[in-house]
Structures are given as structure tokens and as C-alpha cells.
Amino acid sequence: MREWVLVVIATALMTAGALAAPGRTAAQGGRVVVVDVARILAKSAAGVAAREQLEREKAGMQKEVDGRRQELEKLREELEKKGPLMTVDARREKQDAFDRKRRDATRLVDDFQKELEKKEQGLLQKVLQDISGIIERLGKERKYHLIVEKRGAAVVYAAPDADITDEIIKAYDQESAKVKK
Q: For the chain, what is the mean pLDDT?
């Protein structure tokens, strides 16, 4: 899923870069630069904050899942130890309760995973929208011919001076700080 998002961003960035300097070609002095969106997400203040928020939510969900797991373990142990001493109906009732709780726990884990993925996509989408505007603005200001996403566009080689990721992170952190004030 992340690769798809990066490919979409790369396409948008290439279009923005081409629009930033219409009519110019690399031979006429237009510059092609690269940006590493994954590194922006990992190192920018907003990206770090989003990841920390997700980790806090994940920890809360994990705590609930662990509680359910312990409850299931206790039920399983009770069935193993006391099961042979129970009546057939009582054992069946306990086994049914155990199976029901196990299914509920499995559903809970699936729901938590889907919820986390949805929240991650929402947070990533906001960060990606924000950086797209910054990338486009920098492309226009510096008259870049083309800006390519480093990982999604299968860049085989990029000179270190062609990588503007750190500049994007700096600009993004500055804009994020202005919005918070």
C-alpha cells in the first residue's frame, strides 16, 4: 500500500516538476533532483509526531489484546485441569465459552489492525499533502525541471547534490511550526 502511495506521489512530483519549468529540457540547464519521501516521513517533526501517535494507540490496543490473551490462557488451563472432572454438559459449555472468546479476540485483533492501518493512512495522507505543496513550491522557486521520488520512481543513481530531501524536511518543519503557533 505504501508503494502505491509513493508511486502516486512520484507521479504528482514529476508532473509538478515538469510544470515548474515548462519548455526547458535538461540540455538547456534544467535540473533533475530527487526527494526521498520515506526519509521525510521518518525524520520530519510532523512525521515523527504521527508515528509516535500511532505507536501510543498501538500500545493501548496491544494492552487490551494481551488482557484477552491472558483470559483465554486461564480458560484453557481450567479446561485442561478441571475438564475431565466436569460433566459433559458443563465441559461443553466451558468449551463453547472458550471458543466464543477466542473468536472474539481474533476479531478484535483484526479490527485493531484495520483501525491502525486506516489511521496510518490518514496521518500519512496529511503529511504527504503538506509536503507535496512544499516540494512543488521549491521546484518552482529553484526552477527545477523535474523532481523525482527516489524510491517510487526506481532511481538507479542520484548524485548526492541532487537530493533535496533535507531541504524539504527543513521547510516542512518550519511550516509546521508556523501552523502550530
A: 80
